[in-house]
Amino acid sequence: MIEALIGVAVGVLTIVLARIIRGQHWVYSLGLLVLPGLYASFALRVGEQAVGVKEMIYGAPFVVAGLVFVFVSVRQSAVVVGAFWILHGLYDLVHSQLITNAGVPRWYPVFCFSVDFVVGAYLLWLSRRIANANLHQA
To answer: DSSP assignment, residue 12?
Structure first.
């Protein structure tokens, strides 16, 4: 339970920092690039190179989305990037059923799910807010 609460706090902190540095159009995409690498680093830390490679293969869609959307404004991509964050959160919850990675701390999947869900939900909310503002301006 504490890992979920800390994850929510980290998710909120991520959003606040992205807003402060006005880096929304690239911070969230950069996060998508980093997420798969964390699982791979857990595997490498315990000497499981093959598992690290498998983690990166499973993480490839997130890396590709991160690379594509790092160059696209959040106004144009918030829905897709937000969906990828939520998808990664769901991946966190089923990760142990897909890959046996002895390096992943027991608390990490719930923590990461919480961060991912908060950031993803914010981006989906932001995309809806932007769409509504555009409708009212037209």
So the answer is: H
Q: What is the pLDDT of residues 77-105, one digit of tens each?
A: 888 889 999 999 999 999 999 999 999 99
- Measured distance CA(52)–CA(46) in Å, rounded: 10
Q: 85 lies in which domain range?
A: 2-137
**What sign does the CA torsion over 2, 4, 6, 8 have?**
negative
Q: What is the pLDDT of residues 27-81, one digit of tens each?
A: 888 888 898 899 999 999 999 999 999 999 999 999 998 888 887 765 668 888 8
> What total of structural domains would you count in the chain?
1
Decide: 63 and 33 in contact? Cβ < 8 Å. Answer: yes
Contact 99, 68 (CB under 8 A): no
User: What is the CB neighbour count within 10 angstroms for residue 13?
Assistant: 12
pTM of the model: 0.85
**Sequence-distant (≥ 6) Cβ neighbours of residue 80 within 8 angstroms:** 65, 69
